[in-house]
Specification:
The complex is a heterodimer. By secondary structure, chain A is mostly helical. Chain A has 12 helices and 2 strands; from the N terminus they run αααββααααααααα. A two-stranded antiparallel sheet of chain A has the order 1-2. The longest helix of chain B is centred in the last third of the chain and has 23 residues. Classes of the chains: A mainly alpha, B alpha/beta. Chains A and B meet through helix 1, helix 9 and helix 10 of A and strand 6, helix 3, helix 5 and helix 6 of B.
Chain lengths: 293, 295
């Protein structure tokens, strides 16, 4: 018994020395403390802001001087003109509708893709029959870019709205499918045996081992899928949309509103960034054991 | 729950509290694989018994089929010949009645320490409150109560394996199967873990079958040790360990221990060299053997 009691003592002491560093933190010089703890992040943040500023500065130099070196910047709007246009556009109610329309389409197409692709891939990874039945079809369809589906989608679906959601769905579907499949295959078989030894039946093994084991890969797939879905959405909106940020950008070109084009592009970029962050945030919330390490 | 009752019992009452259940019987067990190169006999004609409440080890050179035997007992492999029974029932698949502890811990990384320990009970449909109570009791027993909400990644190897032991015990299995459980730990931690394991076995009087390549570990922990041959795996010898219990570290200096160790080393060395002989040519084995005995 004596040695038995020693073991936990020794290990808990080890653990304390680890966490002890942040416990006695004086609350006053907060910013300085943050800088000490997150030095690398602070440097990264400063460098990031600097690089963005550089890009804007180069943009300003090229456009305000109307540089013409094979690539022509004469008709490209200056940052100031884009800000001006942004002020004007943000004031109108119509712009909000465009953003909402795009977000709704991406949310629908993306969520449906995730809801179909994840369970299908889990089944494909788990049962070779399902895999043999579906994988060849998936492999043939996968290389077809979502944009190539536009004509067929217009014929397939009764409304334009539905065909755009379909294009978004196609864009998101395959990255999610392939990554989830990879995730299921990468689950350690010993963990499956451990679960079986503890009395887990097929369904429980699925829920308790394969699904959480594949989650990091599922989220990689979701991140990639969101990117492709976004690309597909904008393309589809430019071709056949009546609303949406892709339509807005294309319309600005048609109306010779050059600052509007750039503002549309920046909006597309920011919305895509926001979508990616949202997925990462959800991933962190769902996987508190820390898959990113 | 029976584990609570077991824990409440004073530790020194163990000689009179012999467990009624947990008899492992392996009769003429054989396992052959069919591969492209032909039929490979992994294990052949292995017979062994673990009496209720007994601690038995299987030692042997690598490739002797120790793990195959254990996997058959766990229910992951179907024997090609012979019978594997626990309390007279033929093993047909994995079950929570047979707790298994793995070399690389095999904790679920997405579950906290307590959720890992609760897993078997959750599979049994035990209510969350009772699961929690049992898990807390087991974590206290293994000295991990402060870490119940930690994820396995943040624990040391020794702590992980204590979680593995607690998890296997949670469903009150009749037997415990250990597959090189401390092989991945450093020497100091291994000794402590061996004492923890002895202590738990001592309190619970659970039948244990341990597979290891560590001779000292086998002697220190076991009532009996089986030595296996390599390629194909057979039982070469059955050695009783007549050392008194409870055992502490001093026992490993005793003459009885040293004699057993010498005997087991001889037996396994023969097998290791024989196994190597099938991989290398005889001259190479001779020279290795000669240089080893010189040093």
């Amino acid at each position: 018994m004596r040695s038995f009691a020693q073991a936990p003592l020794a290990t808990s002491a080890d653990q304390q020395s680890d966490s002890g560093a942040e416990a006695p933190a004086p609350p006053r010089p907060r910013i300085r403390l943050w800088l000490v703890c997150h030095r690398a992040q602070a440097i990264e943040l400063v460098l990031g802001l600097f690089s963005i500023a550089c890009c804007v500065a180069i943009w300003q130099l090229l456009t305000s001087n109307g540089v013409n070196l094979y690539i022509r910047f004469e008709n490209i709007p200056t940052p100031a003109a884009v800000v001006q246009s942004a002020r004007h556009v943000l004031g109108s109610a119509e712009f909000g509708d465009h953003v909402v329309a795009s977000c709704r389409r991406i949310a629908l197409g993306f969520v449906i893709a995730a809801l179909v692709a994840v369970p299908l891939a889990l089944l494909m990874g788990r049962f070779s029959v399902v895999r043999a039945l579906t994988f060849p079809v998936a492999e043939i369809i996968r290389p077809i870019p979502a944009i190539a589906w536009v004509p067929l989608a217009i014929m397939l679906w009764p409304t334009n709205e539905e065909s755009i959601v379909f294009i978004t769905f196609i864009g998101a579907f395959f990255p999610v499918l392939v990554n989830t499949l990879h995730g299921v295959n990468s689950v350690d078989p010993v963990l499956v045996r451990a679960a079986r030894c503890l009395g887990a039946k097929e369904l429980a093994v699925f829920r308790e081992v394969y699904l959480p084991g594949a989650l990091p890969h599922i989220f990689t797939g979701l991140t990639v899928g969101m990117g492709v879905a976004w690309v597909s959405l904008i393309a589809a909106e430019m071709i056949s949309g009546q609303y949406g940020i892709g339509y807005f950008t294309w319309q600005a070109y048609a109306l010779v509103d050059y600052p509007g084009i750039v503002f549309g592009m920046i909006t597309i970029g920011l919305l895509g960034l926001g979508a990616g962050w949202t997925i990462r945030l959800v991933g962190r919330f769902i996987m508190p054991w820390g898959y990113e390490r | 729950m029976s584990p609570c009752a077991d824990l409440a019992a004073p530790a020194d009452c163990y000689p009179t509290r012999l467990a009624q259940k947990g008899r492992i019987e392996v009769r003429d067990f054989g396992l052959t694989y069919v591969t492209a190169r032909g039929v490979i006999v992994a294990v052949s004609d292995v017979s062994l018994t673990v009496n209720p409440g007994e601690f038995v080890s299987v030692v042997g050179p690598s490739g002797c089929g120790k793990s195959t035997l254990l996997n058959a007992l766990a229910g992951f492999l179907k024997p090609t010949s012979g019978r594997v029974t626990v309390d007279g029932e033929t093993v047909i698949g994995p079950s929570a009645d047979r707790g298994m502890i793995f070399q690389h811990y095999s904790l679920f990384p997405w579950k906290t320490v307590r959720q890992n320990v609760e897993f078997g009970l959750k599979m049994k449909g035990v209510s969350s409150a009772r699961r929690q109570a049992t898990a807390r009791m087991l974590l206290q027993l293994t000295g991990l109560q402060a870490f119940e909400n930690h994820y396995p990644d943040s624990l040391s190897g020794g702590m992980k394996q204590r979680v593995g032991i607690a998890r296997a015990l949670a469903t009150s299995p009749r037997i415990l199967l250990l597959d090189e459980p401390f092989g991945a730990l450093d020497a100091q931690t291994r000794l402590i873990m061996q004492e923890i394991l002895t202590d738990i076995w001592h309190r619970w009087k659970i039948s244990v079958l341990l597979v290891t390549h560590d001779i000292d570990e086998a002697i220190f922990l076991s009532d009996r040790v089986y030595v296996m041959t390599a390629k194909p795996g057979r039982v070469k010898a059955e050695i009783p360990v007549p050392l008194g219990r409870p055992r502490d570290l001093a026992v490993s200096m005793s003459q009885g221990f040293l004699n057993l160790r010498a005997e087991l080393r001889m037996l396994i060395r023969e097998e290791s060299l024989r196994a190597m002989g099938s991989e290398f040519d005889a001259d190479a084995v001779e020279s290795i053997s000669a240089s080893l005995s010189r040093s």
